Batch of 3 targets.
Target 1
Amino acid sequence: MYSVPRLCLCEVGVVSLAAHTSPDAPKIAFASDRDGNWEIYVMDGDGGRQRRLTMREEQDRFPLWSPDRSKIAFGSQVASGWELWVMDADGRNATSLCSGILAKDSRQWSPDGKRIVLALTRDGNVEIYSVRTDGGGLTRLTNSGGDDRDPSWSPDGARIAFSSTRDGNSEIYVMAADGSNQTRITNSAARDEQPRWSPNGSTIAFVSARDGQRELYTVLSDGSRLERLTNDPADDQVPLWSPDGSRIAFQAVRGKEYDIEVVAVANRTRTRLTTTAGYDGMHTWSPDGREMAFISDRDGYDAIYTMDVDGSHPRRLTTTSSLNPAWSR
């Protein structure tokens, strides 16, 4: 079931960069090459006060806020690949934490902000590690014959969900935060991947093509009550729970058209938020769940936009190529 918002191009405008926002209001970190190299920037949620945080020769992308908003982790491309770095929220005290990261794979801060869970390529295999954000080193959490990736920390910090090909096909697993008690919770001939915990920690959303098309599913963390949320010819991927857990935003791909949609968990009502030709993606919820930041190339280049969560009032925040928006909590 679809509800398609009616958007008018006249509603889309560039937000004034001189807007004034409370210093305590949520911020958006992002990557931009406006100065000739991809660097990390931060701005207010309305697009105001855009400022550059990194000034390095390397390409810096994929910012990720700490739970208390005091630090930002990011990926930096060096000659040997990608490294994980962390810095203060004002750009100071940048420190390298580890190398060999998968740049486009998921990474998450632990709820207490002391560690980041991520996938690394070591020993010729992709495994899940956690790294201390104070620079104290790595802990290897998985050691299987397959690739382990897509880690997602439970809201209470006690468990980590991930995908693994250790049994010959990508399935969803759950383990304790220290890597113990690794348990498989899905069993399908198709690939199950991209697990994400619900805000209350009871349910995991994931992507599977078990019915011939990539769709969104949910399952309880013990593997019971498997439910299919979407059923459409589009290729559905990248599930992200709303802060209140009532909806899941995702990317729907139809040929060369990439749109952002949401599905209500209770009744599976699906709402299409973007309808422009081309790419709309890299979506991220605002902390209050009232807005969504995303990337769109509707104006001929990748720019950051926000919109209300019903798809109305799209607002362009950047006027140069920008990627990887990340909203602080």
Target 2
Amino acid sequence: MNAGWKFAALGGLGGALLAYALVFVTSNMGWMPVSGPAVHRYLLDHPEVMVEMVQALQAKDAQKEADTRQAAVDKLGMKAFLDPRVAYVTGPANAKNTVVEFFDYNCPFCRASTPAMKKFYAAHKNDTRFAFIEYPFKGPESVIAARAAIAARKQPGKYVGFHFLLMEGDEITSDESVMAAAQKAGLDIAKLKTDMQDSSIDLEIARAHTLGDAAKVTGTPTFIINGKARDGQIDDKKLDAMVKGET
């Protein structure tokens, strides 16, 4: 997920407001005088104060966003994310653990999370419920990859392998790169290309985005693990902690 716009805002008006807040709070607590030269001197001598305030504001903003997303997920209920009309769902219906992922094939953080997801899937595909939700938003190449992945579901047993190949390969820049992964996954290419033209795929992608909007998904990857929403890149350790409910 990209939070660059937040930093830009802090550099402009947000920075000015933070400076004002710093002066107000520190002066009222007796930490420094209010006069202009004294403030200027204090900030030059203690730049870490402003950095700490920026970090605290970012943490507060991130927590507020996370709380809003979790409230939305709770309201929707897990059934909404296990709908085969918006996700590829696999694993036992009565599984103890459920792992949902919203992803984009050209999202670098999704790609960086793939080794952990692939390892976890291989170890738990028979005891965990998985829902893979295509959530393309990074351009036409992402849409092409998502369409191919959804179409691949019509060839039994091929989706998951194809999904991981798309995630592990180079960034998707053309139809050819998608078809190369499909060939490697053992898909019937002629059938795949025909199935990709099915208008129901457009509807599925639209449903996924509608669901993402309702769940306050603001970027990829976004995970919903055992009902708890988390966003951002993961590794083995973090995924294991999320499944255990430790984060």
Target 3
Amino acid sequence: MPGTNDFRSYVFDPARVDAAGKNVGQRVYWKLYAIENLVRVMAHSILTAQVGANWWAVAVDPGIQASVQRRRADYTNRPWHGTPGKHDIYYAFLSDLSKIIIANSHLFRPVIPDIDQWIARLEQVRLPRNIVGHMNWPHKTDRQRIDVVHADLQQLVQQLAASGTGLSIP
């Protein structure tokens, strides 16, 4: 929707709230969805190859494991809701994913030599992700940052696939 602006800059109008929500969803939210899930697939694939199928128990900080178990329990205790996924990685936040990659960067480096730059880039979208995830309007610079990280991550995934790195869905 070209010309849609943050509804909070105007006199209240429910139609503006709807338009702003549609704009953020169509322009930004889906890219964050893709970023987080591509990172999950890459982390799972690389750590499975480097550590083994039990990589979560071996390579993830116990604090993150405990947080994920609490989140998983929230869903288990409310079985009438859908769940994020079967693997624990789907219960990890973007900040958790970054910490997992940081702690295991030596295992990522053979496959993604510039992993430190990727960690920094994920950190650049963490706060804008929270803004969008909590249904607020991102700043133009944040939208551009998300656009660039999304496009570059798509390229990285294509490069990994072309290099023979097996990418598998957790």
